[in-house]
Amino acid sequence: MPLISADTELRIAISAWESALKNIPDNGLLRAYEHAADNWDWVNGKAFSADAVLQSYTILIIEDRQRLEAERRNAAKQNPDTYRCFHCLDVGYQPVYSYRLQGWYSALRPCSCEAAPASQRQEFPLSMEFVRSKYGEYARLTDIEQYGVPTDAFKDCINSK
């Protein structure tokens, strides 16, 4: 990297690096930096820039998504009746019903598997206090016992308990 003065040039350089790297999560920063440094043209004397790290991060994200999609396709070809993640059926989000304000409401909860975006991924799947319907939807068992089922899909799982 070229030498810069400790005054204005340094503040400008730090600001440029901060703005270029602010959208890269901490756990992906080292990998993106190493990828950028490995692929940088150091011979021509061009200064290494933060934009190179951001571009490398984008490339790595695309490669990871393509790799995961290929793994999903291969898993589906080997056994089409199964999913890699039982909790979200490889969608990345779990539909969850909750009872509030005298009615059932549905929402999507990010799963704990790799199908969910890394920035939203939960640490654990839903706990045992939730019941799963035949369509992969979830509702809290205590809410179902108190207020009834949110959809007909939950009737079979309550009868089997």
Overview of the structural elements:
This protein has 161 residues and is of the alpha+beta class. It has two domains: 71 residues, no CATH class; 67 residues, no CATH class. It contains five helices and four strands, in the order H-H-H-E-E-E-E-H-H. Strands 2-1-4-3 form a four-stranded mixed sheet. A hairpin with a 5-residue loop joins strand 3 and strand 4. 13% of the residues are buried.
The portion of residues assigned to helices is: 40-55%
Number of strands: 4
Largest sheet: 4 strands, mixed
- How many domains comprise the coordinates? 2
What's the helix-strand series? HHHEEEEHH
| Widest sheet, order of strands | 2-1-4-3
- The rounded Rg comes to 24 Å
User: Beta-sheet strand percentage?
Assistant: 5-15%
> Averaged pLDDT, please?
84
